[in-house]
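Reminder to self: tokens first, then the designed residues, so the page reads top to bottom the way the pipeline ran.
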């Protein structure tokens, strides 16, 4: 009978860390024992023993107290890396902080990333324009992360040879790697809350990519709750509008003409602020005259009194999923898994009873 080899917990942790290092999960340095212990659900003593074992192997090199250990790959071996282009929905000056964090985490994993010089808004969410732009940029990118794209844009990307990751957008059902907030249940909860407060004239203002060629999953959840209460639905509830400053003002003028809504869902904080300003000019109070809910979180909401009703989620799992996807693709894996992050409705002071 062959003799069994029993390895300690620290050796098991060292084996796991070794595998992650060699597959390119970290580059240059490895996180400290506290961060690793929290991620692995282990105590710091065990993790420290594992790190010392990797130091003895020569895979890690200590750099002094309080500093991260340096990674020294054997024989100059370097894990494969990617050049990742990030095609955002919004122009460069409106970048969100978590996209900046994504760049840092990709760099920490050894990948090179850059923001595309044009956004989907700049390219008018037009497939032909986007195809020309991607072709011009192809020499600089091995893979693409596309943020909040329409169905036809993501269908086009899914048919290209370069790997692509869809961050939010109309990604459901497509053969494409993706991650994003799972909003339908949160929208359904928010709609039920408004109905319970007596609201019947409820409007959702959302981007065209969420309305066409048919309403998205969140929009369908909203309409389904209205219909379940016997409230007729139509263009009033999900109106079409020209996506510009003037187009948004024209939309609000039309809504507050003869039969104004008593509650509005609004996509993005910038449109939320524009709606608040519009209502103030007309002498309408929030929430006494109109209840408002923003479909996205925003850092400025923390400073508002009364608080802003909104849909929120944790962006960190989505960012980590992109890094894992980049690592997998760099290793030659055809990673097309889709993941969803739980979203929740936060009932704030901008929601009240129907007037």
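Designed residues (355 positions):
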């Amino acid at each position: 009978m062959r003799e069994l080899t029993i390895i300690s917990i620290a050796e098991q942790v060292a084996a796991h860390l070794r595998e992650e290092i060699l597959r390119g999960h970290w580059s240059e340095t490895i996180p400290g024992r506290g961060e690793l212990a929290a991620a692995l659900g282990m105590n710091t003593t065990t993790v420290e023993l594992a790190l010392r074992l990797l130091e003895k192997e020569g895979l890690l090199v200590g750099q002094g107290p309080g500093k991260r250990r340096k990674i020294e790959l054997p024989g100059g071996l370097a894990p494969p890396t990617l050049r990742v282009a990030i095609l955002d929905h919004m122009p460069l000056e409106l970048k969100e902080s978590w996209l900046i964090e994504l760049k840092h985490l990709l760099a920490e994993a050894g990948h090179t990333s850059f923001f595309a010089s044009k956004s989907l808004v700049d390219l008018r969410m037009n497939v032909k324009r986007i195809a020309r732009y991607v072709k011009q940029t192809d020499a600089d990118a091995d893979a693409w992360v596309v943020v909040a794209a329409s169905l036809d844009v993501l269908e086009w990307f899914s048919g290209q040879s370069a790997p692509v990751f869809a961050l939010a957008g109309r990604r459901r059902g497509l053969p494409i790697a993706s991650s994003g907030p799972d909003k339908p249940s949160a929208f359904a909860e928010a709609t039920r809350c408004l109905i319970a407060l007596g609201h019947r004239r409820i409007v959702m203002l959302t981007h065209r990519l969420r309305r066409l060629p048919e309403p998205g999953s969140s929009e369908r959840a909203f309409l389904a709750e209205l219909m379940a209460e016997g409230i007729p639905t139509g263009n009033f509830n999900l109106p079409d509008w020209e996506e510009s400053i003037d187009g948004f003002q024209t939309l609000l003028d039309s809504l507050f003409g003869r039969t104004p809504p008593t509650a509005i869902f609004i996509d993005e904080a910038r449109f939320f602020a524009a709606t608040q300003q519009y209502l103030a000019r007309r002498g309408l109070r929030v929430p006494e005259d109109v209840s408002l809910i923003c479909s996205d979180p925003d850092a400025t909401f923390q400073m508002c009194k009364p608080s802003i009703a909104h849909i929120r989620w944790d962006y960190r799992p989505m960012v980590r999923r992109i890094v894992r996807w980049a690592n997998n693709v760099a290793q030659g894996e055809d990673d097309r898994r889709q993941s969803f992050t739980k979203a929740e409705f936060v009932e704030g002071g901008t929601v009240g009873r129907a007037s």
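The chain has three domains: 9-76, 83-180+315-339, 184-313.
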